[in-house]
UniProtKB/TrEMBL annotation:
This is Threonylcarbamoyl-AMP synthase. Residues 14-201 form the YrdC-like domain. It catalyses: L-threonine + hydrogencarbonate + ATP = L-threonylcarbamoyladenylate + diphosphate + H2O. GO terms for biological process: regulation of translational fidelity; tRNA processing. ATP binds at residues 59, 63, 119, 145, 153, 197, 236. PANTHER family: SUA5, THREONYLCARBAMOYL-AMP SYNTHASE. Belongs to the SUA5 family. It comes from Fervidibacillus albus. The lineage of its organism: Bacteria, Bacillati, Bacillota, Bacilli, Bacillales. L-threonine binds at residues 36, 68, 123, 143, 183.
Amino acid sequence: IWKVDKNVDNLLTYPQIIEAARWLQKNALVAFPTETVYGLGANAKSDEAVKKIFEAKGRPSDNPLIIHISDQEEVAQYVEEIPEVASKLMDRFWPGPLTIILRKRKGILSDRATTSLPTVALRMPDHPIALAVIRASGLPIAAPSANLSGKPSPTKFTHVYNDMNGKIAGIIDGGDTGVGLESTVIDCTNPTPVILRPGGITKEEIEGVIGEVLMDPALQSNDEKPKSPGMKYTHYAPKAPVLLVDGSDLFIQQTIDRYIAEGKKVGVLTTEEKKNRWKADIVLGCGKRCDLSTVANRLYDSLRAFDETNVEIILSETFPNRGIGRAIMNRLMKAAGHRILKQSRSIDGRNIV
Ligand code: TXA
Ligand code: MG
């Protein structure tokens, strides 16, 4: 464990950063903070190094990794071409929580990292520690979120420690991450870019720079096959099942009461504004409804916090499907296995409750 203050000057010459970078050069795994979630880094040019990521996470080998770089200039080495929309997005949002999919130049990056796809996902994170360790290593760094596959992504050092301790060379403890949800993934290999995963940069912000973009239809329904391989797996799930409840306060409390009447210990995932309304076994406030970025920031920690309790079902409020709310709802829907109970309409998920 290397504890590093992200605010110190000259991180590039910091002994802990240099040591972490050396391990990356030796093809070992190092976890480090980014502005979204902690990443589990490996040398993206080495099959041997990248293989360790899939092993440590228990990640399906057909789910490609994002390649992290510290300088926009590096992109040209890894891709066939940089379309104008991609340049505009990089200029505007890098460093930052936007991952751009481009056509891969063959033979440079590990095929295991890109799971032999003809494309590659690239991102320049906006975090001084991430940038310093990538730059110090002199390598492109493949880095998925530093959680065990299926669990909520890590936004605090302790999350990484609990999931990865003993499995990797080291963890840089740089405190809590900022955004709290992963980067937005946008495919720029077609004339009209497609958002494959909503995240830290909103659709609205992207459209402000390059005009209209599409959302992968798989994000709206359960049946479409997602273009981003990672989006098909169950994710972000605490131990107890999650059910989203969309309706009036009365409807939500009635739903809580129904599970209590069945003898279940009920947890409620709510916001500061509504926290005192619910009568249930455990009520966790997760940010403020009036500022959804605070909900994004705390969502994964709240989901993990339920694992420390004895609740048998977690009922969650829903959020408006715009701005950062789109990413919040995407993660909650996945945590819930798409189970959502709506007050007036029928049920929109696979499992009817
Ligand atoms: O914020 C983030 O993006 C974090 C931090 C650590 O940077 N990383 C992250 O990585 O969330 P991961 O591996 O948990 O998610 C990567 C997503 C997956 O859904 C994966 O399928 C998709 O990106 N992806 C990677 N390469 C792709 C490609 N060539 N085409 C389509 N999707 C791709
Ligand atoms: Mg992940």
